[in-house]
Amino acid sequence: MTSNNFRKLSFVLMLSSSLCNNVFAQGKKGDPIEQRVNDLMSKMTLQEKIGQLNQFTSDRTSTGPISANSNKLKDIEAGKVGSMLNVRGSKDTRMVQEAAMRSRLKIPLLFGLDVIHGYRVTFPIPLAEAASWDLDAIEFASRVAGREAAAAGIHWTFAPMVDISRDARWGRVMEGAGEDTYLGSMIAKARVRGFQGKGLGELDAVMACVKHFAAYGAAVAGRDYNTVDMSERHLWEVYLPPFKAALDAGAATFMNSFNDLNGIPATANTYLQRDILKGKWGFKGFVVSDWGSVREMVPHGFAKDNEEAAKYAIKGGSDMDMESYAYVNFLEKLVKNKEVSEDLINDAVRRILTKKFEMGLFDDPYRFSDEKREKKELNSAANKKVALEVAQKSIVLLKNQNQVLPLSKDVKSIALVGPLAKSAEDMKGFWSVVWDNDHLVSLHEGLETKQGKKTQINYAKGCNINDDDKSGFADAVEVARKSDVVVVAVGEAFDMSGEAKSRANIHLPGVQEELIKELKKSGKPVVVLIMAGRPLIFNWTADNADAIMYTWWLGSEAGHAMANVLFGDYNPSGKLPMTFPRSEGQLPIYYNYNNTGRPVINENNIHYRSAYIDSPNSPKYAFGYGLSYTNFAYSNLTLSSKSLNQDGSITVKFTLKNDGKYAGEEVVQLYLRDKVASLVRPVKELKDFTKILLKPGESKEVTFVINKEKLSFYNKNLDWVAEPGDFDLMIGTSSDNIKLKDTFQLLD
Ligand code: GLC
C-alpha cells in the first residue's frame, strides 16, 4: 500500500472513528437522555469529566471573546472546559463552540451570562420590577430577556437573584425583590417561568440560575461578601422559601454565594447544597459556584490552599467551578490520591451533561448561534413596548401634595433640573448587559418627545451626582423662576448600587438635597424624581417637596415611562418592596417585625418601649406603600366563616372601588398575624396580594382564600406547622395603612 493510500486510509479511519466516537459517544437523538449521558460518560476520561466541571470567563477586555494569547481556546479543544461565561452574540458563541467541536468527544459548551434585567432591551432593575407587584409583567419581562439572550447565543442566565434583604446599605438589593419572603417567592417563580418559557430545549428558552444560595442578603452591616450568622429557623423562615419557590417553578440550575453561613462558606456548605437542595428538595440540576468562590475559601480561612478548596467544594455539593481553576488543576490529583471519590465527580458531570442534552446542544451545538435570528429578535419594537409597560408599572408615587401631578399637557414651561435629568447611561442600572447607551431614553428625551413644542423645557443641571460643587445652583434657580413647574431628577449613578457597592451613608448623594432646597425657594411647585438602585434617605425632600416619584433605574424606556406618568398617560401603581428608613441607624428595618414585650404603642409614649430616644421607630415609607392619582375605597369585608380547621379554608371577600377620576391599578395586600404561638410571630406578614385595574367609579369584589399553608411557620423543631389559635386578618393598601380588619380562629 503506497504511503499516499495509507495516509488517505488513516484519514478516513480517523474521520470515521471521530464520527463514530461522536455519534456513538452521544447516543442517537431521541434516545432517553439518561441513556445518552451514560453512553457518553462511559467514553470519558477522568480529565474530560473534570473538564465539564470547569467554567472560564471570556476576556471581556479583549476585542474578541477570548484574547489571542490566552490558553482558553486550547483548553476548550483539549476538553478541559465545560462552560464559558461572558461570551455573547451568535458570531462569537459559534466561534468558541467550534473549538469545543474540535475536542475528542465534541461535548458542547454551555454559554452563561448575567442577563439580570434584559439583554439588548434593558428592563427596570429587578427591585424596580418588584415595585410593580405585577407578576405577569415581571414574567413577561423575563420572557423577553430570555428570548433575546437565546437569540444571541446564550444558553443560561445567572438569574433570578432571589436574596431577601432588609438592609439598604447592601448594594445588591437592586438585583432582588426586596425584603419580603412571600413577595420574593412569587417573583422568583415568575422570573424562572419567564426565562425558561415553555421549557429547556425550546429555541427561545434559557436556563435559569437561582442565586445566591444562600442568605447572601443578610450580610452583617449590609457589607457585600460579609459574614452571615443566623439561626437555622430564621434561615428557613425568611431566606430559603424564594429558593424553594424557584426550584418548584423548574429552575434548571443554582448558584451558591460568597458568604459564609454560620462559619461555613456556602461553596462548601454540605447542609445547604447536599442536605437541603439536593437531598430534602430533590434538586436534579447542577450548582455553579459564584465567581472564584471556590478559591476564596482560602482567604475565608476555611481551606489552606486551592487544592483543599477544590476538595471541600466538590464534597460540599458545588458541581461547577466558576473561574477558580481549582477543579481543573486539582481534582484529578485528589481523585487519584483517593481524597475525593470519583462518584462525586460522576454525579456532577451527570447533572451538567443532562442539562446540555435537555438544551438540545448535542443534536445541534450551534442552534442558539444564528445571526439572522439575532438580528430579528434583538431590540425589536415589540420588546421595547414591553419594557415601557413594565417601567411605568414600576414607578412609585410617594407624595402628591395638592394634586400637583399629573401635569397638565398645556403646561407652558417646565424647569428640568438635576444631574440625572439628561442622563441616559444611568437609566440602565447595574448589571446591564449592553455596553452602549444608544438605546436608553433619558427623562429629558422623554419629556421632549411627549410635549414637543407645546412645552418649553428649561434645563439646568444644577449639580453633579456625588460631589460638593454648588456652582450650578444659580442657573438652576434661574430656570425655576422662569418656569411654571420644577421637575428635579436626582439620585444615584448607575454604579452606586450593585455588586460591591455597599454604602454606609444612603442619603441622597452629594449636594442634591441642598439643590432641592434652593429650588423650593423659587415658590414654584417642585416635583422630585429619585432614580436609584436602593432605598435612599431624603427626609427634607420628603417633607417639603410637592410631589415625589421613586423611579429606580427603569432601563431602555425610562424617559418615556417617566414622562407618561408625569403627564398622567399612565397612573402610577407601584408599591415599595422595601421599607425606607429615616436614618441608617434604623437598619436593618422591615415591616414584619416581632412585637416584643414593650412594643411602641404610639410614637409619643416614650416610656420603656422598644424604640430609639432620638428617632421615631417608624420608617419614612413603609413596605407596600405607594400612591395613585385616583383613590380606592375598601368596604364590605366578609369571611365565609370565623374559623377553619387544619384542612379547611376561609374565603375572604371585600369590595374595592375607584373613587377618583382616573383609571388606576391598586395592589391590595392581605396581611395575617398569628396572635399567640409556640414561637413569637411577626405583627403582620404578607400572605397574598393582587393588582386590580378599575375605571373611575368602578367597583370589584376581591377574593382571597385562607388555608393552613398561609398560617404555617417553622416551629422550634423546624416542622412546618399551623398552630390552633386566633389570627388577625388585615387588608391594606400598604403595610402601615390597613383598610379592613377581622379575626378568625384555626381549630385543632
Ligand atoms: C458575580 C456575581 C454573580 C454573577 C457572577 C458571574 O461576582 O456575584 O451574581 O452571576 O459573578 O458574573
From TrEMBL:
<dbReference type="Pfam" id="PF00933">
    <property type="entry name" value="Glyco_hydro_3"/>
</dbReference>
<dbReference type="GO" id="GO:0009251">
    <property type="term" value="P:glucan catabolic process"/>
</dbReference>
<feature type="signal peptide">
    <location>
        <begin position="1"/>
        <end position="25"/>
    </location>
</feature>
<dbReference type="GO" id="GO:0008422">
    <property type="term" value="F:beta-glucosidase activity"/>
</dbReference>
<keyword id="KW-0378">Hydrolase</keyword>
<dbReference type="Pfam" id="PF01915">
    <property type="entry name" value="Glyco_hydro_3_C"/>
</dbReference>
<feature type="domain" description="Fibronectin type III-like">
    <location>
        <begin position="666"/>
        <end position="735"/>
    </location>
</feature>
<protein>
    <recommendedName>
        <fullName>Periplasmic beta-glucosidase</fullName>
        <ecNumber>3.2.1.21</ecNumber>
    </recommendedName>
</protein>
<dbReference type="InterPro" id="IPR002772">
    <property type="entry name" value="Glyco_hydro_3_C"/>
</dbReference>
<dbReference type="InterPro" id="IPR036962">
    <property type="entry name" value="Glyco_hydro_3_N_sf"/>
</dbReference>
<keyword id="KW-0326">Glycosidase</keyword>
<dbReference type="InterPro" id="IPR001764">
    <property type="entry name" value="Glyco_hydro_3_N"/>
</dbReference>
<dbReference type="InterPro" id="IPR051915">
    <property type="entry name" value="Cellulose_Degrad_GH3"/>
</dbReference>
<dbReference type="GO" id="GO:0042597">
    <property type="term" value="C:periplasmic space"/>
</dbReference>
<keyword id="KW-0732">Signal</keyword>
<keyword id="KW-0574">Periplasm</keyword>
<dbReference type="InterPro" id="IPR017853">
    <property type="entry name" value="GH"/>
</dbReference>
<dbReference type="InterPro" id="IPR026891">
    <property type="entry name" value="Fn3-like"/>
</dbReference>
<dbReference type="Pfam" id="PF14310">
    <property type="entry name" value="Fn3-like"/>
</dbReference>
<dbReference type="InterPro" id="IPR013783">
    <property type="entry name" value="Ig-like_fold"/>
</dbReference>
<comment type="similarity">
    <text>Belongs to the glycosyl hydrolase 3 family.</text>
</comment>
<dbReference type="InterPro" id="IPR019800">
    <property type="entry name" value="Glyco_hydro_3_AS"/>
</dbReference>
<dbReference type="InterPro" id="IPR036881">
    <property type="entry name" value="Glyco_hydro_3_C_sf"/>
</dbReference>
